[in-house]
Amino acid sequence: MLLRPVMWLANRYSSRPDKLRVHKALSDLHEHLITNPGEKGLILSFEAESGRFIIFSDQHKGAGNGADDFAGAEKNYLAAMRYYLERDYTYINLGDCEELWENSLVAVKKANVNAFEAEKAFFEKNAYIKVFGNHDLYWDNDPLAGFELEKIFGKKVPIYEGVILQAAVSNQPLQFFLTHGHQGDTLSDGNLFSKWFVANIWAPLQSYLGLNPNTPAYDDHLKTTHNKLMYEWAASQDGLVLITGHTHQPVFESLTFLERLYKKLGMARASGNAAAVSEYEQLIKLKKISGETMPDFTAYKQTYFNTGCCCFSDGDVTGIEIADGYIRLVKWEYTEALPKRVILEELALESLIQQVVAASAIA
Asked: For the whole model, what pTM was predicted?
C-alpha cells in the first residue's frame, strides 16, 4: 500500500531539472574542459579501432543494510571489473559511485572492500578516471576527500567533473563529452534540501520497506524529463556525443528501449512488414499504443547516450562500452546465478560519425 505514495514522493522531490539551468551547466562545463583542460576534467585522444573504455555510473555503494541498492548487484559489478581489467579497458567511473547522502564514508568503505579493490586495480594500471556526481559530491567539495581517497587507492586520485574523449573516425573528428548529468537539476546539484530529504525521509523508508526504485523495467518507458533536456542539449551541438548517468535510465542513440521499439514498429508499419509489426506490438504490449498518439522518434538525432546504473533491483548492471571501433550498451545479468555480459545495442563508430555529421549539417 505504501509503495505508490513513497515512490511518488521520491520522484517528486528527488529531481526537478530546469531546461535553462541544465543547458547552461552543460555548455559551461564543456567550454571549461576545452579551454582549461586538466582543471575540471581531462581531454583524452584515442585510436578509434583499438581504444577501449568502459563507462559505469550510479553504483550507489552503500553500507550493506536494507537501503543499500548496490548490494544485490555487487557480484555482477565485480565480474565486470575482472572482465574489463583483463582486456585492458580504461574504466571511467561517471559519478554517484558511493552513496554518501545516506551513509557515512566509514560505513561505505567497510561494506565495499571488494569493489574498492577492483577499482584500485584499474588505478594501478593508470586506467581509472573518477568523476563525481551529486550523491558523492563529497569527493569534490570536502577538504578531506583527497586524503580519504588516497587511503583507499594508495595514491592521490584526481577527481573530475567531466571527460572528453576524442578520435578521428573516417577522417572526421568525433568527440564524446562525459559527465554525471546532475548539473542544472535544482534538487540534485548540491541542493541541501534534497540531501536532507534523501538522508532523513527516503533512506529510512527505503530501508524499512525494502524498496529499490531502480527496477529492471525502468528502461521500458519514455525518457525522463532530465534525459529529454540532456538530449536536447546534445542535439544542438556540433560534432559531439553526450554520455551521462544520473537518471538510472539506459539510453542508446538518444532512445530508451521502449522508444527504440516504437521507432521499429513505425518503420515496420511504413514498409508493410506484417510479421515485424506483430512482433513489435507484442513486445510493446499493444494496449499501451493508441493509434495516432504513438510517439514519432524517426527524426531523433543519435547524439545522446546514458549508462543506466549499477544498482537495478534484480542485480543487473548496465554501462556503455567504447571499444574496438564500436559503442555498445551492455548489461551484466545473473544467468543461473552467474554473472553474464549481454550486448543490448551496438553501433559502429563509422556509422555514428555519419549520423553526428548529418545531425550537424541539419542543425
From this structure: 0.89
